[in-house]
């Protein structure tokens, strides 16, 4: 089942954004961390155009994607306080706004057939209408983009676009879930709850379908509308109706400020010897450093192999996924990005792996985007054995464009493939050894009996230990 969310971009909390200069490319990279986005944003500033390279989900947050100040800061990032002048607001008529959006899709959309839509005819249809306000233009733009049948490519009015922006406080606020739209049923679906957040603690699970928010049906609702309903001040409550395996469940969740520590690690004694266990909860800005520190610490303790736990990891920064993969992989391809011309941009290993010891990766249906880049790359290169259940399945690249009146659009411009050419977004990653848990087992393990996680009472971990023992022989 395919699912939608703004690729490496979207969730439901406020996030910190950090800008730095990429010394290799000279491009500015803005990192959107936390649960608002599961993405890194490679931004090339051309006027008010910012190109985001993302691969994941929708954020429900009070976060804002701030305009980049000039000149580009290297160590810190502060949102621009620039306001749009009246003359700028009047620069474009409603028809010009519609045509601007049409042109962006025409030039950049990943599918040159526009998903078999006659895009020229669409332009004629909507420019032949009369418009008395931008609100009428917004309605037509949404209708126009809907013809592409691509929930990732969408229009945001000025308020919705503002809601997408990130603030620099670094404080996360929300209930701690990533959501998206199922690309077949168009239902609002949970990508994954973030561990130790309010949504996680009440029992929200990956693949849950959100049918109502505070009593309002989500039928026909897009992710931006859901974001506006779910986010709110810490201490306030939101009511979600969830459909799980045909049964409806009610959850009342208290919003909170959330601090996420992306990495936990420990040495474990087992039948396979001393094992280095690393749990990576999210690919945030500091995740790569923390994983590196964990590996170095465990290497100093002379562990004989590793288990990397990516279960319920909804993704994060693209750069983190590449950097972390390089810690395990000495040579070989990591991921490919393919645009509408079929041109490929590849990320490869750099010969600086921190260890060559046996590796097992734990994955499940909550492992998404950046998690799938790492697990797919290490599986394809036969560097790791994957144990668990099939991953979520998403990986697209989008461009985010601001428009003259403060609104914006996101456009799918490319897709990710694993080194062997697998399409992450449509297929997900199948583990080498399947250990599937039912809903009761999942809730017992991740909610009621969390002290059993990463012990032999954890069926997936126990299998990973067994596999690791066989790899060492």
TrEMBL record:
Q: Where does it reside? A: Cellular thylakoid lumen
Subcellular location, principal = other
Instruction: State the reactions this protein catalyses.
Output: The enzyme shows specific recognition of a C-terminal tripeptide, Xaa-Yaa-Zaa, in which Xaa is preferably Ala or Leu, Yaa is preferably Ala or Tyr, and Zaa is preferably Ala, but then cleaves at a variable distance from the C-terminus. A typical cleavage is -Ala-Ala-|-Arg-Ala-Ala-Lys-Glu-Asn-Tyr-Ala-Leu-Ala-Ala
**Statement: the UniProt record of this protein carries the keyword 4Fe-4S:** no
Task: List the Pfam families.
Answer: PDZ_2, Peptidase_S41
Q: Which residues form a coiled coil?
A: none
One GO cellular component term: outer membrane-bounded periplasmic space
Q: What class of enzyme is it?
A: hydrolase
Q: Which keywords describe this protein according to UniProt?
A: Hydrolase, Protease, Serine protease, Signal, Thylakoid
Q: What does this protein do?
A: Cleavage of the 16 C-terminal residues from the D1 precursor of photosystem II (PSII). This proteolytic processing is necessary to allow the light-driven assembly of the oxygen-evolving cluster (a tetranuclear manganese), which is responsible for photosynthetic water oxidation.
NCBIfam families xref list = Cterm_S41_CtpC, prc
Q: Can you tell me which family this protein belongs to? A: Belongs to the peptidase S41A family.
Q: What is this protein called?
A: Carboxyl-terminal-processing protease
The source organism is: Chlorogloeopsis fritschii PCC 6912
């Amino acid at each position: 089942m395919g699912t939608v969310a703004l690729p490496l971009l979207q969730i439901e909390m406020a996030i910190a954004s950090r800008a730095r200069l990429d010394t290799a490319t000279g491009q500015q990279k803005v990192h959107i961390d936390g649960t608002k986005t599961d993405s890194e944003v490679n931004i090339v500033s051309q006027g008010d155009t910012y190109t985001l390279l993302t691969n994941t989900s929708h954020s429900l947050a009070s976060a804002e994607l701030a305009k980049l100040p000039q000149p580009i800061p290297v160590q810190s990032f502060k949102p621009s306080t620039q306001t749009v002048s009246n003359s700028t607001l009047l620069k474009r008529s409603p028809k010009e706004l519609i045509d601007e959006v049409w042109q962006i899709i025409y030039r950049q959309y990943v599918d040159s057939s526009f998903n078999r839509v006659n895009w020229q005819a669409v332009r004629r249809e909507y420019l032949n209408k009369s418009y008395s306000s931008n609100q009428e233009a917004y309605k037509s733009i949404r209708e126009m983009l809907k013809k592409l049948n691509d929930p990732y490519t969408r229009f945001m009015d000025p308020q919705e676009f503002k809601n997408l922006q990130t603030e620099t406080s670094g404080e996360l606020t929300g209930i701690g879930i990533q959501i998206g739209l199922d690309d077949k049923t168009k239902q609002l679906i949970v990508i994954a709850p973030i561990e130790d957040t309010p949504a996680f603690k009440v029992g929200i699970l990956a693949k849950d379908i959100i049918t109502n928010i505070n009593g309002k049906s989500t039928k026909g609702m897009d992710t931006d509308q859901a974001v506006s309903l779910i986010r709110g001040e810490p201490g306030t409550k939101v009511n979600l109706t969830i459909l799980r395996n045909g049964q409806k469940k009610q959850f009342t969740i208290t919003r909170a400020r959330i601090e996420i520590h992306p990495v936990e690690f420990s040495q474990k004694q087992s039948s396979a010897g001393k094992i280095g266990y690393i749990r990576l909860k999210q690919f945030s800005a500091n995740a790569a450093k923390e994983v590196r520190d964990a590996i170095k610490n465990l290497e100093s303790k002379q562990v004989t192999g590793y288990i990397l736990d990516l279960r319920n990891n909804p993704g994060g920064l693209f750069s983190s996924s590449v950097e972390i993969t390089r810690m395990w992989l000495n040579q070989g391809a990591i991921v490919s990005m393919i645009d509408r011309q079929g041109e490929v941009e590849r990320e490869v290993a750099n010969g600086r792996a921190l260890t060559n010891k046996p590796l097992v990766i734990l994955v499940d249906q909550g492992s998404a985007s950046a998690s799938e880049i790492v697990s797919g790359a290490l599986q394809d290169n036969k560097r790791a054995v994957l144990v668990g259940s099939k991953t979520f399945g998403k990986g697209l690249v989008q461009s985010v464009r601001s428009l003259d009146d403060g609104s914006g659009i996101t456009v799918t411009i490319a897709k990710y493939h694993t080194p062997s050419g697998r399409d992450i977004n449509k297929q997900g990653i199948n583990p080498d050894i399947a250990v599937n848990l039912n809903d009761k087992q999942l809730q017992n393990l991740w909610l009621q009996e969390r002290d059993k996680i990463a012990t032999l009472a954890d069926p997936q971990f126990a299998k990973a230990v067994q596999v690791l023992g066989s790899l060492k022989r």
